[in-house]
Amino acid sequence: MNYTEALSRYVAAFVDELAQHELGNVVISPGSRSTPLAMTFAEHPDVKTWVNMDERSAGFFALGIAKQTNQPVALVCTSGTAAANYYPAVIEAYYSRVPLLVLTADRPHELRDVGAPQAINQLHLYGEYAKWFQELSLPEATDRSLGYIRSMAARAFHVANGKNKGVVHLNFPFREPLVPDFSLPNLWGNQEKAKHLEFHQGQKQLSTPELDKLYEQLKQYKKGLIVCGPMQDNDALVELLALAEAWQIPVLADPLSQLRQGVTNKRVVIDSYDAILKDPNTREKLEPDFIIRFGAMPVSKPYTLWLKEKPAIDHYIVEEDQGFREPVGHGATVFYTDPAMFCATMLELPKFQFDLNWVKQWQSYNQVAMNILKEHDEEGLNEGHAVVHLAEHIPDNSTLFIGNSMAIRDVDTFWFATNKIIKMLANRGANGIDGVISSALGAATASKRVTLFIGDVSFFHDQNGLLMAKQYGLNLTIVLINNNGGGIFSFLPQAKQQSPHYEALFGTPLDLDLSHVAQLYKGNYANPKTWEAYQEALKESYRRSGLSIIELNTVRTHNAAWHEQKWRKIAMHIEEELHVSDGK
């Protein structure tokens, strides 16, 4: 058997085993050394290939597909710095627990560290951010070698897709010639066979003594909260709301928890808690006995400040499998258990007698905050009501991808409970502004309409990702908030210092005509100047296919003042209610 046949059968066995495990998508960045992987993936009938020439964009594009489908996605690149460009997406996948299979082609061992071109040290390139790394053997086609490479494929898929999901990195050393021979008979092996390796994983649940202890602790309390940060486990949402309803305690729901959307009973869901907790006096007077948190930490900074100010609150964290996400530093009890099973088990316990006035208080404050946030002022366009109108017109059963910095915070504040089924996604693992457009386009590959809500600096950072929209005709509406720079810094102490260096270091105005970006990538463009024109632009974008960019121009300083005026008004009205409840 010659080398080309050995290479072809070896790589084909690997790709086929991934297909047997239902790997649906692979994102390929062109290169020479990765030819065996790229061509074999493209040849396999059960795998969809996407070609993205920029590895940084490709990494985030794959991340977006994986976030949308909740299934592993493979990345393929050539040797050298190509693999290093995946690093930001790998870090985001690690922290947000998203399954990626990073498949890097490499020079064979004799061409490493000898001055050969395009050869870097790719071993353990991603360090602790990979759940598992393997340097694979050189291609052979013996029965043992083909069994080995199928085992590697199966294990890689299982580890990436297991609890907690994450990144697997496999490094493939290839000698030349690199082009596979697809005329070989029975290249994929026996198509009727089962997977070479199969894995099954059960659910973790608490023991009876652990449940008994928790029950005795909960019996002591009168005021409780359920807090839901970004969550991957949508199966737990129904059980979680049922538990909150049975206990009659408030649920502070981050927008990425998915609890603000869908046809569910949301009577105890508090969607304006970020605005409520902005005021220090309000935070001081609201003190629960306990908090049970599901998912990652919420986006809300006031919520984090509140926790830091209330170290006496008993804190319980429900984690699906492992890991530790408690950045405040207070004591906490962590339960490693299936969230849906945890809620169902709690519902079977004898009913608790919690303070009903507590949930009514939160519901009242929530209504106050929502009414004030929705109030239209005489001023022109603003970033908060851009979210309000977006929520009105975004299609049912679609996806909203949210940029970081001010974009996610405005969605947190101005997105209220709705019966529309809207999946909310964001890159909140490492909270970077890089790769957001690419991730949104990756989410758009799943044939759902995707809307991206993003700021101008983050938009600028990933403009080249728009090539995938043009290349594959993906449907994406971009609501681009252009305040000519880093608007989030207007809310931070840096903006109050009146430093002559503020604009250069933090404001970072771009002063770019972004309409040219739409022309470059064959997209539709609108720049509405009124709310009526904005709403019409949204409706028009959803009537057409392809890329639409709706640019809203706002002023950073005006936007910060407008937000702060809303928060002061909310604090004042809640203070009045607190005085009434205190009998003053």
What are the defining features of this structure?
Rossmann fold; six-stranded parallel sheet; alpha/beta; 584 residues
In short:
The chain has 584 residues and is of the alpha/beta class. It is built from 23 helices and 18 strands.
Provide the CATH superfamily of the largest domain: Thiamin diphosphate (ThDP)-binding fold, Pyr/PP domains
- Provide the domain count: 3
| Uncertain residue segments | none
Please state the overall shape, judged from the principal axes of the Cα atoms. globular
Number of helices: 23
Q: Tell me the total number of β-strands.
A: 18
Your description of this structure?
The protein is an alpha/beta fold. It folds into three domains: 3-173, Rossmann fold (3-Layer(aba) Sandwich); 208-372, TPP-binding domain (Rossmann fold, 3-Layer(aba) Sandwich); 379-567, Thiamin diphosphate (ThDP)-binding fold, Pyr/PP domains (Rossmann fold). 41% of the residues lie in helices and 15% in strands. The strands form three sheets. A six-stranded parallel beta sheet has the order 2-1-3-4-6-5, with helices on both faces. Strands 9-8-7-10-11-12 form a six-stranded parallel beta sheet, with helices on one face. Helix 8 (236-247) links the parallel strand 7 and strand 8 (251-253). Helix 1 crosses helix 2 (35-43), helix 13 (356-374) packs antiparallel against helix 23 (556-581) and helix 14 crosses helix 15. The longest helix is centred in the last third of the chain and has 26 residues, at 556-581. The radius of gyration is 26 Å and the shape is globular. One of its GO terms (biological process) is menaquinone biosynthetic process. Residues 436-551 form the Thiamine pyrophosphate enzyme TPP-binding domain. It catalyses: isochorismate + 2-oxoglutarate + H(+) = 5-enolpyruvoyl-6-hydroxy-2-succinyl-cyclohex-3-ene-1-carboxylate + CO2.
